């Protein structure tokens, strides 16, 4: 949301930090695209954009309009609400503060969320490439056992 100043609505300057909600939505676009094994170029072609524009959306540098978000959701086969899932209180609070005053607020680090790491995405994709459901289940149980054992150490 643009802020009002004495000169009219305040537009985000190039030096301003992206809105945390834009960053979150972009991260969710990246998460879903990566889980599907889709390149930025392929997503861009499907919605009529360059891969550079997709990169800007994923970083939160550019806001995604409602109709564009609808197109992205259709291509990525998710509901539009998927992009707003898991918005935590910190992100929502930071976004509200950005709308209320002109001071820059820090943007949460995406690395803090393990679901946003490339390693996690690669692990999930490799897991689902295992064709035998019984083998997949045994791997799942083994991974949980190792994680539980390391927590108890």
Helices and strands in order, then pairings?
Blueprint: E1 3-5, E2 8-10, H1 20-35, H2 40-47, H3 51-59, H4 66-76, H5 89-100, H6 118-129, H7 133-152
Antiparallel strand pairs: 1-2
Helix pairs in contact: 1-3, 2-3
Summarize this entry quickly.
The chain has 153 residues and is mainly α. The protein is built from 7 helices and 2 strands.
Structural commentary:
- The protein is mainly alpha-helical and 153 residues long.
- Helices cover 58% and strands 4% of the residues.
- It has helices at 20-35, 40-47, 51-59, 66-76, 89-100, 118-129, 133-152, and strands at 3-5, 8-10.
- Helix 1 crosses helix 3.
- It is globular, with a radius of gyration of 19 Å.
- It starts with a strand and ends with a helix.
Can you give the mean pLDDT? 79
The radius of gyration is 19 Å
**Lateral arrangement of strands in the main beta sheet:** 1-2
**Order of SSEs, N→C?**
EEHHHHHHH
- Large-scale geometry: globular
> How much helical structure, as a percent, in the residues?
55-70%
Structural category: mainly alpha
Low-confidence stretches: 100-110
Measured by DSSP, the beta-strand proportion falls in under 5%
> What is the number of helical segments per DSSP (H or I, 4+ residues)?
7
Q: Care to count the β-strands?
A: 2
Largest sheet: 2 strands, antiparallel
N- and C-termini, Cα separation: 48 Å
């Amino acid at each position: 949301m643009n802020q009002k100043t004495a000169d009219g609505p305040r537009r985000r300057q190039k030096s301003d930090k992206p809105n945390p909600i834009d960053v979150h939505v972009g991260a969710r676009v990246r998460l879903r695209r990566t889980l599907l094994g889709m390149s930025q170029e392929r997503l861009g072609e499907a919605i009529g954009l360059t891969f550079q524009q997709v990169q800007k959306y994923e970083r939160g540098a550019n806001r995604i309009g409602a109709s564009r978000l609808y197109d992205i959701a259709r291509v990525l086969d998710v509901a539009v609400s998927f992009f707003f899932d898991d918005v935590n209180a910190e992100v929502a609070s930071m976004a509200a503060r950005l709308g209320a005053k002109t001071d820059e607020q820090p943007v949460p680090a995406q690395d803090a969320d393990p679901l946003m790491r490339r390693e996690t995405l690669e692990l999930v994709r490799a897991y689902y490439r295992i064709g035998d459901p019984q083998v997949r289940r045994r791997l799942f149980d083994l991974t949980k056992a190792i994680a539980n054992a390391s927590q108890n150490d």
